[in-house]
Amino acid sequence: MARKRIVVMYGGKADEHSISCISTAGVLRALDADRFEAVPVGITKTGEWIVDGEDPREWNLADGLPVVEATEGSRRVVLDIALGKDGFLARNADGTLESLGHIDAVFPVLHGPYGEDGTIQGLFEMMGVPYVGCGVLASAACMDKHYTKTLLAAAGIPVAPGITIDARGYDEASGFAADMPALMARIAEAGLAYPLFVKPSRAGSSFGVTKVEHEGDAAELAAAVLEASRHDWRILIEQGIDAREIECAVLRDKAGETPRASLPGEIVLDRRAGGDDQFYDFDSKYMDADASHVEVPADAPADVLERVRDIAVRAFEAVDGMGLSRVDSFVTPDGEIMVNEINTMPGFTPISMYPKAWDATGIDYTTLITTLIDGVTE
Asked: Where does the record place the ATP-grasp domain (predicted)?
């Protein structure tokens, strides 16, 4: 049987560029080579699509954060949308175009804007090319935490209390200080208790997220809003929840099937045991091996874990999820569960929560990748 040819995309213009590269390294190394032929297509930080660049299989986070760059032997990718699955071309040094061959599907291992937000999904919809993961609506809605919360709340799924602001009209010359009295009044009116988390609405991997500890500290709040605004003009200000964050991997590999939920897992922040007021920022996720570890299943009562799984499936269906998503929930000491966010293309390294959760549930990494691809090509 002929192998299916799968474009595996990585990099991209988002802040999560390097994490996408590391996820792709894991996917390519684990891909069943007897069934699939990978066609790696990288996207530089400026948005240039290339083939024949540096081999992602060689990348390892221990060696630093990789970056997709055009090399002497790389070629730009050109799309002919009208040709659909045969519309992936590469431009040679002499300017001629060469087909990359018939493509059966795309696995866009892209995190963040311009990859996980519905934009590239819309492109492949226009081309008629199957792709792994959520469609345009779910991708766009879940990339924007404000609209995720709007959809979930409409479906009766609890979410963290918060407000959304538009920083485009704020006074950047004053470092947003001039806007803080009105913003602090809004926070008080909404009844939000400190600490607060200030975060970009459309970013991932904890980029731009700040914990604001002190009620009435306008300078602290202004600094947090300014940091978030570097990543997005739409900003969420959410009440900190005294809760554990328990994550659940959801899988619907074929349209019409009922989504499946993995055993829930938990990121354990190891420094909290020593009294450190630690939260799960970028360094804790990726750069500091001693900062955290993954536990699947999470150490919680069986009935709580089952309710986490049920809410994860409900949330996935509420946003019209497809393929894969990781649903992150807060679980309070009294057992209340609320959804924090939905990641439609979660970290996909072998040690990321999504693959580890399915491995603990009985689906190993390679089988998981195969299942996702088969779901859009069979």
From this structure: 149-374
The residues annotated as belonging to the active site are: 16, 205, 352
- Domain 4-132 in this protein, CATH class: alpha beta
Sign of the CA dihedral with 229 first, then 234, 237, and 240 last? negative
Would you give the distance in Å from CA 195 to the centre of its chain?
25
Class of domain 142-158+242-344: alpha beta
- Give the separation between CA 70 and CA 72, rounded to whole angstroms: 7
Within a 10 A sphere around the Cβ of 144, how many other Cβ atoms?
A: 22
Amino acid 287: pLDDT: 45
Whether 228 and 240 have beta carbons less than 8 Å apart is answered as no
Residue ranges of the binding site for Mg(2+) = 328, 341, 343
**Tokens 């009116």 found at:** 189
pTM of the model: 0.90
Binding positions are: 145, 197-199, 205-206, 238-245, 328, 340-341, 343
Q: Which of 364, 352, 362 is nearest to 24 (CA)?
A: 352
Annotated binding site for ATP: 145, 197-199, 205-206, 238-245, 340-341
The domain 162-239 is classified under which CATH number: 3.10.129.10, 3.90.190.20, 3.30.1490.20, 3.30.465.10?
A: 3.30.1490.20
